[in-house]
């Protein structure tokens, strides 16, 4: 569970929401945190993945045949859906179950679910039904602070709990998933996906983008009076550069260019000043208005908040996907920096990728987890010298089965597989 100190200056109406969650995302570990309810979702995938072009600016793809990649994704998705997609609470709701998060249902998981089901539109005949059910769940669980965003967390009965305010990563993926849905199904059905996406994008800009730094805030609860230290914090795994490009395209709002560039500037600064040999980014950044730096000690969650840990493990994927989709030289350079270091530090053996590093590259945790090793495959696609390494990563990924106790790793792994294989929609 996320450890967030109580803020005595908050208004009473929102104090409980911010104190329990400070919904900056989900604290993850290798151990499950809740018992699993029974699944109400079918598990059969009947169609095959359509041929998809390589990512527009990717320099590499796995050497495995397209048929083998398709089969691996279809099998993994079937197992992921069976393990984590549920409709326990209400007939028109589906929701992604998160046994390893601090609550059974979290906004992050619903964002993952929307992105994944939209990407699987050509594979799963249930995809739009599942998407619409997850979307309805999102719409029926608004943030108490900005109702155009999602409340961060719900219990097993699907009642919003301490996470009454928003989680930035969940909202970003929810908005992006809506844009994917508009691209694959159009917006003439039950839901106007495009209109809902634009409404949520505007809310993200209004409530989750810092007005001075233009960096992503930790949630709509970040406030100069309520949470003064956290107000000047940001989380690199929320720096979804490709999402920002899609938001610019969908809304025509050039502020999203400014927002993206602010994040690219800070990525470059952090890599140069704090991780020149590794390119690793920390879980959290503090003092963004004055002297941005990796979090010192326990900033929001734990004493590893300034390390490449359970949040930052996503950054090779988030930055890497912008590199291989947009070809932006700054994103390519940032992704290649991480790729070169991890490849060399492991001797080209993905089994040597640890589950937590200090920014200088020293490991502070042992064990192998897909949340850490899978994202490096996306970064590898940007580097022309990494074919053998990418193939080794892909082999490890496809050999790693869904663990029903670890939704976080499985959801990241599936999204990485979709990107690396070139499957799904490109915005």
Structural description of this entry:
This protein has 427 residues and is mainly α. The protein has one domain (12-421): Glycosyltransferase. The protein has 15 helices and 6 strands. It has helices at residues 12-20, 66-84, 107-119, 127-139, 168-185, 193-208, 228-231, 241-251, 255-274, 315-326, 329-345, 370-373, 375-380, 387-399, 407-421, and strands at 85-86, 95-96, 105-106, 153-154, 285-286, 293-294. It has a two-stranded antiparallel sheet with strand order 1-2. Strands 3-4 form a two-stranded antiparallel sheet. Strands 5-6 form a two-stranded antiparallel ribbon. Strand 1 (85-86) and strand 2 (95-96) form a beta hairpin. Helix 5 (168-185) packs antiparallel against helix 6. The longest helix is centred in the middle third of the chain and has 20 residues, at 255-274.
Give a brief description.
The chain has 427 residues and is mainly α. Helices cover 44% and strands 3% of the residues. It has a single domain, classed as Glycosyltransferase (Alpha/alpha barrel), CATH 1.50.10.10.
